[in-house]
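A protein record pairs a chain with a discrete description of its three-dimensional fold. The following entry can be read in just this way:
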Amino acid sequence: MQKNAALKSSMEKVQEELKSDLLKEEAKPKWKENKMGTERIASLMLSMGIPMILSMILQACYNIVDSMFVGRMDDGERALTALTVAFPVQMLIVAFSIGTGVGVNGYLKTQTKNPVVFGYAKTYLKICCILSFGIVMFSIFEKLLQSTGKTVLSTTAQILGAATNIILDPIMIFGYLGCPKLGIH
């Protein structure tokens, strides 16, 4: 009986949280609404296209500035050649990131109509994406170590990473050892 009462109480709390989240969703200001389905195409092209173009120009400026400074190094010619060799890989990473971002948003919308679940998924993915930079860097360095024959070192790093994850997951998700309870936030 006590288990049923506790379960019922827990379910009521979850329902209240869901209701609260739905009310928050409805109370969002108009500027937070998705304008893709409500504004004219010409207006969208200008309001969304110009910032995207500026973003691409700024990205190009990073490479120009890098090349400027690298070219001034003592071994500038070889260093610039190295940048040129690395540039396609860098653009491949950027293209993959952009494609993934667009695809994930579309995928999430097809998986659930529940705005609370969608919000949780978005929040969790933001965390994953921010921290995936570390995973990508680790993967690159792991393969570099393996290609130079240092497989034991890369495996040791993988074991340490997995152990750290196993230890930190419950601490951060459930708020143990004085850490705030983060859940999937």
